[in-house]
TrEMBL record:
Residues 1-28 form the signal peptide. CDD domains: PBP2_GltI_DEBP. It holds the Pfam family SBP_bac_3. This is Solute-binding protein family 3/N-terminal domain-containing protein. Belongs to the bacterial solute-binding protein 3 family. GO terms for biological process: amino acid transport. Gene3D superfamilies: Periplasmic binding protein-like II (3.40.190.10). It comes from Hydrogenophaga intermedia. SUPFAM superfamilies: Periplasmic binding protein-like II. SMART domains: PBPb.
């Protein structure tokens, strides 16, 4: 005849053993390669840009400033709080469009705070959090040029920053429409806008919000204007390394907190609706309906 007391005791012991075994195998909620590195070094590395106004650029005092930089500072504070660190040093690493993805993929930086588009090709190499801006590529030309469309015969040379999504769009448009224009790839936005100012290029194609920002800090902002229809749709988001779900959760949770608390609205207004360095000129760009709608159900999953 079976002995119930022995059966219950055995079942209890096996259950306890299974719990201990599974707990030993399960990763801690705040553990992962990125988190472990941040915890052991007591620092987080934020990649920034030189001239992606107003998202991420070098200010008059040579320190990184901007909309994305301010968001990243809050993300760093969230990491510090979640990990229970008494302090967390923030180190900045300046990157370009050409090397920004590599900086994240190889672990040189933990966050890239700039104006990078979240798309499928890049998600093969890096992760993204929830977009902080939605824009599209247009053209920057001289104000008196009379240029309005990229397919105008008068456009002979177009400058586009290397390793950006607008570069792929311009190549596609050139091939589809049989345009004869020359595409000049530049290392950064500063070089491209200088080419337009000096007459070395007829247009500079980039995200329109960046074009407005770049024009606002030129010696003569009125000499340039943004024209044309959108050639792309660009959800801009902060990059972070793949392979650390716990780190990404901290970042995503903080982005959602910033959005649902509307704290991000204040950051946005500071950089897009108020006067910004170095010329103390406002961009006067209120939050678009596209971004407002996207933030109703914030997600890192974008088409």
């Amino acid at each position: 005849m079976p002995q119930p007391s022995l059966s219950v005791s055995l079942r209890t012991a096996l259950t306890a053993l299974a719990f201990v075994f599974s707990a030993g195998l399960a990763p801690a909620a705040d553990a992962g390669p990125v988190i472990d590195q941040i915890r052991s070094q007591g620092r987080i590395v934020i990649a920034h840009r030189e001239s992606s106004v107003p998202f991420s650029y070098v200010g008059p005092d040579k320190r990184p400033i901007g909309y994305a930089v301010d968001i990243c500072r809050r993300l760093a504070a969230a990491v510090q709080a979640k990990l229970g660190l008494p302090g967390l040093q923030i180190d900045f690493l300046q990157v370009t469009p050409a090397n920004r993805i590599d900086a994240i993929e190889t672990g040189k930086a933990h966050l890239e705070c700039g104006s990078t588009t979240n798309n499928a090709a890049r998600r093969e190499k890096v992760a993204f959090t929830i977009p902080h801006f939605i824009t599209g590529a247009r053209m920057l030309v001289k104000a008196g040029s009379g240029l309005e469309r990229i397919d105008q015969p008068e456009i002979k040379r177009v400058a586009v920053t290397r390793n950006t999504t607008p570069l792929g769009a311009v190549r596609r448009i050139k091939a589809e429409r049989g345009l004869r224009m020359e595409i000049v790839e530049t290392e950064d936005h500063e070089k491209a806008i200088q080419m337009v100012e000096r007459g070395e290029a007829d247009a500079f194609v980039m995200d329109d919000v960046l074009l407005y920002g770049l024009a606002s800090v030129r010696p003569d902002p009125a000499a340039l204007k943004v024209v044309g229809r959108f050639m792309t749709t660009e959800p801009l988001a902060i990059m972070l390394p793949k392979g650390d779900a716990a780190f990404k959760k901290i970042v995503d949770d903080e982005m959602r907190r910033l959005i649902f608390s509307r704290e991000i609205h204040g950051i946005y207004q500071q950089w897009f609706e108020q006067a910004i360095p170095p010329n103390n000129v406002p961009l006067n760009l209120p939050i678009s309906y596209l971004l407002r709608d996207f933030w109703k159900f914030p997600t890192d999953q974008v088409p």
